[in-house]
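Attaching the record inline, Q. Sequence:
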Amino acid sequence: MPIDAAKALAAEPRSGEITWDHKDVQLYHLGIGAGARPDKDSPATDPDELRYTLESRLHVLPSFATVAGAGSPAVIRGLSLPGIEVDLARVLHGGQSLTVHRPLPVAGTATATSRIAAVYDKGKAAVLVMRTEVADSDGPLWTNDSQIFVRGEGGWGGDRGPSAGLGTPTGEPDRTVERPLREDQALLYRLSGDWNPLHADPEFAKLAGFERPILHGLCTYGVTLKAVVDTLLDGDVTRVRSYATRFAGVVYPGETLRIRMWRRDGAVRVAVSAVERDDAPVLADTVVEHA
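Structure, as predicted:
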Protein backbone atom coordinates (compact mmCIF):
# COMPACT_ATOMS: atom_id res chain seq x y z
CA MET A 1 0.00 0.00 0.00
CA PRO A 2 1.53 3.36 -1.02
CA ILE A 3 0.30 4.96 2.22
CA ASP A 4 1.30 3.25 5.46
CA ALA A 5 -0.83 5.20 7.95
CA ALA A 6 0.82 3.78 11.07
CA LYS A 7 4.31 4.53 9.77
CA ALA A 8 3.35 8.04 8.68
CA LEU A 9 1.81 8.89 12.05
CA ALA A 10 4.73 7.43 14.01
CA ALA A 11 7.43 9.26 12.03
CA GLU A 12 9.57 11.81 13.83
CA PRO A 13 8.67 15.44 13.05
CA ARG A 14 10.94 17.26 10.63
CA SER A 15 12.28 20.68 11.61
CA GLY A 16 14.11 23.32 9.64
CA GLU A 17 14.88 27.01 9.66
CA ILE A 18 12.89 29.38 7.47
CA THR A 19 13.57 33.03 6.74
CA TRP A 20 11.71 35.77 4.90
CA ASP A 21 11.88 39.50 4.35
CA HIS A 22 9.75 42.32 2.97
CA LYS A 23 10.38 41.28 -0.65
CA ASP A 24 8.88 37.85 -0.02
CA VAL A 25 5.84 39.43 1.62
CA GLN A 26 5.39 41.92 -1.23
CA LEU A 27 5.72 39.19 -3.88
CA TYR A 28 3.10 37.08 -2.11
CA HIS A 29 0.72 40.01 -1.85
CA LEU A 30 1.14 40.76 -5.57
CA GLY A 31 0.51 37.07 -6.30
CA ILE A 32 -2.93 37.26 -4.65
CA GLY A 33 -3.90 40.46 -6.45
CA ALA A 34 -2.70 43.26 -4.16
CA GLY A 35 -2.09 46.55 -5.93
CA ALA A 36 -4.92 46.07 -8.43
CA ARG A 37 -7.76 48.55 -8.59
CA PRO A 38 -10.71 47.41 -6.44
CA ASP A 39 -12.95 48.95 -9.10
CA LYS A 40 -12.56 50.97 -12.30
CA ASP A 41 -13.14 54.27 -10.48
CA SER A 42 -10.27 53.75 -8.03
CA PRO A 43 -6.88 55.41 -8.58
CA ALA A 44 -4.17 53.36 -10.29
CA THR A 45 -2.37 53.02 -6.96
CA ASP A 46 -5.09 52.78 -4.34
CA PRO A 47 -3.83 54.13 -1.00
CA ASP A 48 -5.38 51.18 0.83
CA GLU A 49 -3.32 48.79 -1.29
CA LEU A 50 -0.03 50.37 -0.24
CA ARG A 51 -0.15 48.53 3.09
CA TYR A 52 0.38 45.37 1.05
CA THR A 53 2.83 46.65 -1.55
CA LEU A 54 4.97 49.49 -0.17
CA GLU A 55 7.77 48.47 2.19
CA SER A 56 7.50 51.59 4.34
CA ARG A 57 3.84 50.80 5.15
CA LEU A 58 3.90 47.02 4.92
CA HIS A 59 1.48 44.86 6.92
CA VAL A 60 1.57 41.07 6.55
CA LEU A 61 -1.63 39.27 5.57
CA PRO A 62 -1.72 36.16 7.81
CA SER A 63 -2.13 33.78 4.87
CA PHE A 64 1.48 34.62 3.97
CA ALA A 65 2.22 31.91 6.55
CA THR A 66 1.40 29.31 3.88
CA VAL A 67 4.42 30.36 1.79
CA ALA A 68 6.83 31.88 4.34
CA GLY A 69 10.32 30.54 3.76
CA ALA A 70 9.58 29.90 0.05
CA GLY A 71 10.15 26.17 0.42
CA SER A 72 7.99 23.45 -1.12
CA PRO A 73 4.37 23.81 0.02
CA ALA A 74 3.10 21.40 2.66
CA VAL A 75 1.05 19.54 0.05
CA ILE A 76 4.30 18.51 -1.67
CA ARG A 77 6.50 18.20 1.43
CA GLY A 78 4.02 15.80 2.96
CA LEU A 79 4.50 13.36 0.09
CA SER A 80 8.15 12.82 1.01
CA LEU A 81 7.52 11.79 4.63
CA PRO A 82 7.94 8.18 5.85
CA GLY A 83 5.03 5.89 4.98
CA ILE A 84 3.87 7.98 2.01
CA GLU A 85 4.65 7.23 -1.63
CA VAL A 86 2.09 8.55 -4.09
CA ASP A 87 1.86 10.01 -7.59
CA LEU A 88 1.78 13.82 -7.56
CA ALA A 89 -0.74 13.78 -10.42
CA ARG A 90 -3.26 12.15 -8.05
CA VAL A 91 -2.85 14.77 -5.36
CA LEU A 92 -5.17 17.69 -4.67
CA HIS A 93 -5.21 20.21 -1.86
CA GLY A 94 -8.39 19.39 0.04
CA GLY A 95 -8.42 22.10 2.68
CA GLN A 96 -6.37 24.48 4.77
CA SER A 97 -6.55 25.89 8.26
CA LEU A 98 -4.34 28.49 9.89
CA THR A 99 -4.11 29.61 13.51
CA VAL A 100 -2.24 32.85 14.14
CA HIS A 101 -0.59 33.08 17.56
CA ARG A 102 0.61 36.67 17.06
CA PRO A 103 0.97 39.10 14.14
CA LEU A 104 3.41 37.99 11.46
CA PRO A 105 6.55 40.15 11.23
CA VAL A 106 7.60 41.71 7.93
CA ALA A 107 10.92 39.88 8.18
CA GLY A 108 11.94 36.97 10.34
CA THR A 109 13.81 33.75 11.02
CA ALA A 110 11.92 30.87 12.59
CA THR A 111 11.86 27.11 13.03
CA ALA A 112 9.17 25.17 11.19
CA THR A 113 8.30 21.69 12.50
CA SER A 114 6.14 19.44 10.32
CA ARG A 115 4.50 16.06 10.81
CA ILE A 116 1.56 14.00 9.63
CA ALA A 117 -1.12 14.67 12.26
CA ALA A 118 -3.83 12.39 10.81
CA VAL A 119 -4.51 9.93 7.97
CA TYR A 120 -8.10 9.31 6.90
CA ASP A 121 -9.54 6.60 4.65
CA LYS A 122 -12.30 8.06 2.48
CA GLY A 123 -12.85 4.86 0.49
CA LYS A 124 -11.77 5.97 -2.98
CA ALA A 125 -9.19 8.38 -1.61
CA ALA A 126 -6.95 9.07 1.34
CA VAL A 127 -6.64 12.34 3.22
CA LEU A 128 -3.39 13.30 4.94
CA VAL A 129 -3.31 16.14 7.46
CA MET A 130 0.10 17.80 7.40
CA ARG A 131 0.64 20.02 10.46
CA THR A 132 3.35 22.67 10.51
CA GLU A 133 4.11 24.63 13.67
CA VAL A 134 6.29 27.70 13.40
CA ALA A 135 8.05 29.53 16.23
CA ASP A 136 10.83 32.08 16.56
CA SER A 137 12.92 33.19 19.54
CA ASP A 138 9.87 34.94 21.03
CA GLY A 139 7.63 31.85 20.89
CA PRO A 140 4.92 30.38 18.62
CA LEU A 141 3.98 32.34 15.49
CA TRP A 142 1.46 30.18 13.64
CA THR A 143 0.14 26.66 13.05
CA ASN A 144 -0.84 25.45 9.57
CA ASP A 145 -2.88 22.32 8.79
CA SER A 146 -2.96 21.20 5.15
CA GLN A 147 -5.44 18.52 4.11
CA ILE A 148 -3.88 16.52 1.26
CA PHE A 149 -6.39 14.58 -0.86
CA VAL A 150 -4.88 11.57 -2.67
CA ARG A 151 -7.18 9.99 -5.25
CA GLY A 152 -7.23 6.21 -5.52
CA GLU A 153 -5.34 5.57 -2.27
CA GLY A 154 -8.14 4.76 0.16
CA GLY A 155 -9.92 1.54 0.97
CA TRP A 156 -7.72 -0.01 3.65
CA GLY A 157 -10.37 0.20 6.37
CA GLY A 158 -8.94 3.13 8.30
CA ASP A 159 -10.69 5.96 10.16
CA ARG A 160 -12.87 8.00 7.79
CA GLY A 161 -12.33 11.14 9.84
CA PRO A 162 -14.69 14.12 10.06
CA SER A 163 -17.20 14.44 7.25
CA ALA A 164 -19.89 16.91 8.29
CA GLY A 165 -19.44 20.31 6.68
CA LEU A 166 -20.72 23.64 7.89
CA GLY A 167 -22.93 24.21 4.87
CA THR A 168 -23.71 27.58 3.31
CA PRO A 169 -24.96 30.21 5.79
CA THR A 170 -28.63 31.10 5.54
CA GLY A 171 -29.92 34.56 4.76
CA GLU A 172 -28.52 37.29 2.58
CA PRO A 173 -24.78 37.88 2.93
CA ASP A 174 -23.67 41.06 4.66
CA ARG A 175 -21.27 41.82 1.84
CA THR A 176 -20.57 40.42 -1.60
CA VAL A 177 -17.51 41.40 -3.63
CA GLU A 178 -16.02 40.20 -6.89
CA ARG A 179 -12.32 39.78 -7.50
CA PRO A 180 -11.12 39.29 -11.11
CA LEU A 181 -8.04 37.12 -11.53
CA ARG A 182 -5.26 37.75 -14.01
CA GLU A 183 -4.64 35.32 -16.86
CA ASP A 184 -1.11 34.92 -15.50
CA GLN A 185 -2.18 34.76 -11.84
CA ALA A 186 -0.87 31.22 -11.32
CA LEU A 187 2.45 32.04 -13.00
CA LEU A 188 2.89 34.99 -10.67
CA TYR A 189 1.74 33.21 -7.53
CA ARG A 190 4.04 30.22 -8.07
CA LEU A 191 7.06 32.52 -7.64
CA SER A 192 6.31 32.37 -3.90
CA GLY A 193 7.43 28.72 -3.88
CA ASP A 194 4.74 26.35 -5.20
CA TRP A 195 6.31 24.96 -8.38
CA ASN A 196 3.76 22.18 -8.93
CA PRO A 197 3.48 21.91 -12.76
CA LEU A 198 -0.28 21.44 -12.39
CA HIS A 199 -0.50 25.23 -12.25
CA ALA A 200 1.69 26.01 -15.27
CA ASP A 201 2.14 23.03 -17.63
CA PRO A 202 -0.88 22.23 -19.87
CA GLU A 203 0.31 18.67 -20.51
CA PHE A 204 0.70 17.91 -16.82
CA ALA A 205 -2.71 19.45 -16.13
CA LYS A 206 -4.27 17.08 -18.69
CA LEU A 207 -2.58 14.09 -17.00
CA ALA A 208 -4.21 15.24 -13.76
CA GLY A 209 -7.63 15.41 -15.47
CA PHE A 210 -7.95 19.17 -16.09
CA GLU A 211 -8.48 20.91 -19.41
CA ARG A 212 -5.75 23.44 -18.62
CA PRO A 213 -3.60 24.57 -15.67
CA ILE A 214 -5.60 25.50 -12.60
CA LEU A 215 -4.96 28.20 -10.02
CA HIS A 216 -3.32 27.22 -6.74
CA GLY A 217 -5.94 26.67 -4.06
CA LEU A 218 -3.79 28.69 -1.68
CA CYS A 219 -3.89 31.63 -4.09
CA THR A 220 -7.69 31.64 -3.89
CA TYR A 221 -7.29 31.23 -0.11
CA GLY A 222 -5.17 34.40 0.02
CA VAL A 223 -7.41 36.41 -2.31
CA THR A 224 -10.39 35.54 -0.11
CA LEU A 225 -8.76 36.45 3.20
CA LYS A 226 -7.62 39.77 1.77
CA ALA A 227 -11.20 40.51 0.65
CA VAL A 228 -12.52 39.75 4.16
CA VAL A 229 -9.86 41.88 5.88
CA ASP A 230 -10.34 44.79 3.50
CA THR A 231 -14.14 44.65 3.55
CA LEU A 232 -15.18 43.68 7.08
CA LEU A 233 -12.08 44.03 9.28
CA ASP A 234 -11.17 47.64 8.46
CA GLY A 235 -8.02 46.53 6.65
CA ASP A 236 -6.47 45.43 9.94
CA VAL A 237 -4.53 42.20 9.35
CA THR A 238 -3.77 41.83 13.07
CA ARG A 239 -7.43 41.11 13.87
CA VAL A 240 -7.31 37.67 12.20
CA ARG A 241 -7.08 34.84 14.72
CA SER A 242 -7.72 31.80 12.52
CA TYR A 243 -8.81 30.98 8.99
CA ALA A 244 -10.08 27.64 7.68
CA THR A 245 -11.54 26.48 4.39
CA ARG A 246 -12.35 23.45 2.26
CA PHE A 247 -11.38 23.56 -1.40
CA ALA A 248 -14.69 22.70 -3.08
CA GLY A 249 -13.75 23.23 -6.72
CA VAL A 250 -11.08 24.46 -9.08
CA VAL A 251 -10.40 27.98 -10.30
CA TYR A 252 -8.90 28.84 -13.67
CA PRO A 253 -6.68 31.90 -14.12
CA GLY A 254 -8.63 34.74 -15.71
CA GLU A 255 -11.90 33.92 -13.95
CA THR A 256 -13.74 36.11 -11.45
CA LEU A 257 -14.27 35.09 -7.83
CA ARG A 258 -17.56 35.99 -6.16
CA ILE A 259 -16.93 36.24 -2.41
CA ARG A 260 -19.98 36.29 -0.15
CA MET A 261 -19.54 37.15 3.55
CA TRP A 262 -21.80 36.75 6.57
CA ARG A 263 -20.95 38.42 9.89
CA ARG A 264 -21.10 36.22 12.98
CA ASP A 265 -20.07 36.88 16.58
CA GLY A 266 -16.27 37.04 16.41
CA ALA A 267 -16.20 35.44 12.98
CA VAL A 268 -16.99 35.85 9.29
CA ARG A 269 -18.50 32.97 7.33
CA VAL A 270 -17.53 32.96 3.66
CA ALA A 271 -18.55 31.21 0.45
CA VAL A 272 -16.60 31.65 -2.79
CA SER A 273 -17.68 30.75 -6.32
CA ALA A 274 -16.54 31.19 -9.93
CA VAL A 275 -18.74 33.79 -11.63
CA GLU A 276 -18.16 32.64 -15.22
CA ARG A 277 -19.14 29.03 -14.45
CA ASP A 278 -22.60 29.74 -13.03
CA ASP A 279 -21.27 30.33 -9.52
CA ALA A 280 -19.58 26.94 -9.30
CA PRO A 281 -18.41 26.48 -5.68
CA VAL A 282 -14.72 27.14 -5.08
CA LEU A 283 -14.28 27.53 -1.31
CA ALA A 284 -16.75 26.08 1.19
CA ASP A 285 -16.99 25.70 4.98
CA THR A 286 -14.89 28.84 5.23
CA VAL A 287 -14.53 30.72 8.52
CA VAL A 288 -12.34 33.68 9.50
CA GLU A 289 -12.22 34.12 13.29
CA HIS A 290 -11.18 37.58 14.42
CA ALA A 291 -10.72 39.93 17.34
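The mean pLDDT is 91. The first helix runs from residue 5 to 10.

More tomorrow.
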